[in-house]
Design a protein that fits this description.
By secondary structure, the chain is an all-beta fold. 1% of the residues lie in helices and 43% in strands. It is built from 1 helix and 28 strands.
Amino acid sequence: PPPGCDPDVQDCGPVVRVCDPTKEECTEPLPALPEITVAAVTPPDPATCPNWIAFHTFRDNNLEIYRLDGVEGTGTLYNLSNSSASDSRPSRSSDDQWVVFQSERNGNVELYLTDSEGKSQKRLTNTSANNINPMFGPDDNLVVYQSDRNGSWDIFLYNVATGEETQITDERFNEINPFWSPDGKWIAYQTDRYGNQDIIVQNIETAERYQVTVGLSTDAFPLWSPNGKNLAFLSDASGVMNLYVYDLSTRNAKQITTGTNVTGNPSWSPDGSRLAYQDEREGNLDVYTYDLAGSKEYRLTEYEGPDSAPTWDCGGANVSFTSTRDGNPNLFQVPWTGGDQSNLTTNPSTDKWSEWSPSKEAASRGH
């Protein structure tokens, strides 16, 4: 059965009617996800791809988004967000020309756009609500995000070229954590329409919606693989949050981590064949990678302190992560199978939650 589905108390077939006992009415089920074909993106050429990191920092005494080309001390730093407010959750366009982010500079949380050197910032949304968690689409024009302007969280699209906003979910439920398919035709997101948290995918052109997970567990933070074949997500079906990969062709979910502690911050490699994530084992939080082809896990860090929030470089050879081994949070890099670890940032303030190459992943959201 799907993650979290208990066949003793509910129907675990392709169409499931699940009721929240705290509500008076039962939510109508969505159809199960059929086999769909999603075009892959071409993996970047490691020899020519723009290898810079966007990250969160307190080096200006407030939360800012910076860009680092290379290694601090010899590389170049840019302040991308440039404000005295709290700025966070960057998402870069696939051509690396633009970064969209959220900011509290107007009291509520709105979306802003900056060029990739931080020369100018443009306000995108203008509401009295909170507009958060943006992600650039593969066309480098549409941005998906969530907003609570209608009293619950809904998913919206923002057209950077025209300024037009389009609401793509409009029910009374909370729909959050949207993530683009690599071909830009689908959005995966998290919903509470059945009282718990499940994963849904929706076609942008037809508005067709399909259920990926069903049941009583919390299934959260969907991430579409760059090769279009899989959806990664976190689920507490085993009792704590573990990492799963849902195969879009077989429509089966494979459990990747099996620990009794929480797994978090998963991130796909640029070719979609590997995942990086953080996992706490034996009382210590470390960074791991998993190779789907070989079904093999690699432990990347062994520092006796928290190592977290991994993200891949554009060539898929190295992983960046946040660590407190210097006494304060800094960014480090390590080969994806493990090995020598070295600083990317060295500032005595807090540097954390990096985004090296992908347009969006859980690590840069800072949860």
